[in-house]
Amino acid sequence: MFFRHWNIRLRVGAAVTLLFLVLGFAVSSFCPIPDVMAWGSFPKSRPPGGGHILGTTALGQDIFWLAVMSLRNSLLLGLLTAFLSTALGVAVGLFSGLRGGAADRVATLFTDSLIAVPNLPILILLGSILKGRIPIPALALVLTLFSWPWPARATRSMTLSIRESDFISTARFSGEGTLKIIAKEIFPFVSDWSVASFTNAILSAIQTESGLAIIGMSSNTMPTLGTMIYWANDRSAILSEQWFWIGAPVVLVTLLFIALFMTLSGYQAYATMRRGK
Amino acid sequence: MLHLRDVSARYNLLDSYANAVDNVAFTVGDNEIFGIAGESGCGKSTLLKVMYDLVRYPLEISAGKVEIEMLGAGGEKILIPTGEIRNAWWKCISYVPQGAMHVMNPVSKIKYQFFDTIGKHRKTGNRRLLAKEIADYLRELELAPEVLDAYPHQLSGGMRQRVLIALATFLSPSIILADEPTTALDVIVQRSILTMFKRVQRKVKNSMVIVSHDMGVHYQIANRMGIMYAGQMVEIGPTDEIFERPRHPYTQMLIAALPRIGDNSQKEGIPGKPPSLREPPPGCRFAERCLFAKPECRRAQPEMSIVGENHSAACFRLNSESAGGAGLWGAGAAGGKAAAAHGGGREAGAGREAGNGGVVRAGETTTAGQPNGKADVRGSGVPGGNALEIRGLSKQFRIGGMIFGTKIMAAEDVNISMPADRPWILSIVGESGSGKTTLAKMILKLVEPSGGDILLRGEPIMELGKDRPKEYYKRVQPIFQNPFSAFSPRKIVDTYLYETALNLDMAASRADAKRMIGETLNAVGLDRDAVFGKYPNQFSGGELQRVSIARALLTKPDIIVADEPVAMIDASLRMNVVNLFKQLKTAYGVNFIYITHDLSTAYYVSDYIATMYRGNIIEFGRAEAVLENPLHPYTQLLLDSIPKVGLRWDDNMALPDIESREYQLAGCKFAGRCAFAAESCRNSRPAMREAQEGHWVLCFKYS
User: Fold this and answer.
1) Is the CB of residue B477 less than 8 Å away from at least one CB of chain A?
2) Do residues B188 and B99 both lie within one domain?
3) Is the CB of B486 less than 8 angstroms away from the CB of A172?
4) What domains are there in chain A, each with its CATH number?
5) Which of B164, B190, B222 is the last residue of a domain?
6) Which residues in chain A have their CB less than 8 angstroms from residue B551's CB?
7) pTM for the model
């Protein structure tokens, strides 16, 4: 099988991540409740059982389906942000690194400025302006704005060192254009790193959103793992010992982080092994 | 004395072993320099590590041991075996590693590195006294004691290497091991380091073991030497014996392949490549490449047998045929001729056989032909006629910041014009930092000149590159120093060949390109089926360099710029690549610019030679004229510093100062190092003069 050479971290990490993906995107489509966020749909503060796998919240919501829908939205946000920021960052990094000159200086100025800007205060500000009305894709775009400079910087520095290699000159003297050189000569060296960066970006996007949500600055209309924790906290779930309400999102988010982290570090070890080092 | 008792060592590769040292036995006597020669990957560095007891995972000793034999205080014999040798480091045995760049602590001054090392092995007591003692010792070795207060990065590579030698010898160990001590250093620096080794050895009368791939180095300093091949010692003997009466076919071929200045005869490299150390063949390891291999050679391994006084070799021919003395082989060059006469099919590729004889002969006549008067260092002004014309080319680099930075002239007012009527090979020689690579990069448009013009058949390359880049790539092609970095390790090499053929409109279709690539690969002695579908790491250095040459040839260029194309290739394969240049010059009518620091291959291959010194061309002319009768003192110094086989250096000669780093702006740049420098040399610049017909020199002596 293709995962024969995978190490244990990569196997466990990938398996748990896959489980989360199934839970978030496949299971969620069987959700019987039209609006999991609606208050008072069910009797309040029920323990698990009686049609509610994990019981209900103090607001009368089904905890299991609320958690599944939250996971779906959080994953969607993470994947969208990670995809956009990695794609944009790697593309900008490759171009500015290979082109050099004025284009490079402008791109570097831009990325460095964005890195220097503290993103959390700005996100809180944005959140408070748009409070409750920001849809997931728009939130993903905002998060992308602050996360693409990192892959751009790293890719640029890799490109700068690869650019000096003789095989880039060989490719030029073979009549290859800049685009082809980027795609065929440089990208193969960046691709392994991009996968790791992508995973990392999912992590940090979910983390940032959760952080925002916990202080009540994220979307109100869509359930995410962060908003679920916010509401549980808001209605003193811990004091009233409603462990499944506060526990479900916390456990999910923790497991997701561990799984993604294992995938990331396992993949790096695997990539190193595959390069034969 | 150092005894090696049937030592075998291997690298543990988890799924297999690489048997880097296989059953090696010899003794290094007191008061001698023992040289170990062999191509890269033959296990010579590993052997040195085993001798120094630097054995750690994944290296392991699988059989035998190394013993240091010493006389104790009461005159009794003390044996220090493997495992205990590390307790005797620095005091009894010391090691000068390869690459002095990486073995010194970059954040600590040289003197503290001396203190640290010496303090571990001797009660140091008063630091000031010790510092004085070290300074005295450095002075004895003709090193300025000021280096003690310097950081490693402030010293040049040669100086660092000399400091390391001083450190290694300070406690007068009875055995000193040196791993490629002069590799990657310029010939002039190399000479001073080798002379230093010899002088130290003569003074201390200890044993030295020097590993080098350069046979010339061994000829200059070793008393006895061993030749290694694929992890085994194949021949051991006194240096003169080895060079005059080599007995093992491998040694004979190595020596026959050495290019020498003044010797125009055809040289052949050794075909094929060494066997894998993971699964070595059951028989003689050289059998695959040997011209005399018989079936028995492939079945069993030959034992070392005595072939002369202190001289032994491992070859079945020496056991079975009672061919005494020189009956089998003449010395040196004669062996090469016999080898050349022996067969046409020695090259790996089939295609070479056909063209071999005729092409080579044609190449020789060109070399010996009439001097072509048009090659010139001034603009000779044939409009549109010259294949290459360089006019007043200069390049400045800034080092350091905007305010405190200094300017370095990597090229200054370089003028060359080369004719178009007959293909030529122009060698550009010089030490590192002389600007030869910058010049090559400017011709390749990889570096933009600060001033001046480069014209190809009358067209400036900057405009040509801008307006018709394809046309430029068709006319000029590069060959890089390291073939393994000239191809992406993640792509199969044929992609580059196809790209060149198709992108530059050399072939109309993929099928057409395939046919063309096949023909070109044949021309460089490779077979298409042996090249296609392979990644770069599946080739040997020599083979991959041929692929690189084939790619450059696909466009049928005017000029191929080859920057140190054989520097990374084993000596045994080097001549194959160099010979190729000669053949292709006539077969394809392509001109070569051959950048090198190796004057002997330059002499062997080129029609014209330009010597560069700190950005200036200081001598230019036909290869024989420049190298047989050098006019500029620098060219003379370079030539004297080549470790030549057949002519030993005078060890007592005062060595020229190699460390003058100032870039004088007023006078001749070489004046600081020149033995003939007069007052005028320091105050004004000489101009290029035609000292003899077609032989130009930048020196006041000839004005």
Assistant:
1) yes
2) yes
3) no
4) 8-27+51-274 (1.10.3720.10)
5) B222
6) 170, 174
7) 0.78
Same domain, B207 and B261: no
Render pLDDT for A68-127 as a digit per residue (tens, 0 to 9): 999 999 999 999 999 999 999 999 999 999 888 888 999 999 999 998 988 888 888 887
Cβ–Cβ contact A209 with B under 8 A:
no
pLDDT digits 0-9 by tens, B281-332: 888 999 988 888 888 888 888 988 888 888 999 998 886 554 444 334 433 3
d(CA A129, CA A125): 6
Rounded Cα gap, residues B267 and B264, in angstroms: 9
Nearest to B462, CA basis, from B474, B438, B446: B446
CB contact under 8 A, B488 and A169: no
Distance from CA of B581 to the nearest CA of A (A): 19
Average model confidence (pLDDT) across chain A:
87
On whether any CB of chain A is under 8 Å from the CB of B696, the answer is no
Would you call B552 an interface residue with chain A, using a CB distance cutoff of 8 Å?
yes
Q: Does B186 share its domain with B286?
A: no
**Same domain, residue pair B157 and B250:** no
Indicate the Cα dihedral angle B668, B670, B676, B681, nearest 10°: 10
Any idea what DSSP says for residue A62?
B
Contact list in A for residue B550 (CB cut-off 8 A) is: none
Structure tokens at A153: 């910087």
Domain hosting B243: range is 238-346
Q: How far apart are CA B585 and CA B592, in angstroms?
A: 7
Domain-ending residue, one of B278, B313, B346: B346
Q: How many CA atoms lie within 13 A of B464 on its CB side?
A: 19
Which candidate from A166, A175, A184 shows the least CB-CB separation from B486?
A166
pLDDT one-digit tens code per residue, B93-118: 999 887 666 788 889 999 898 888 88
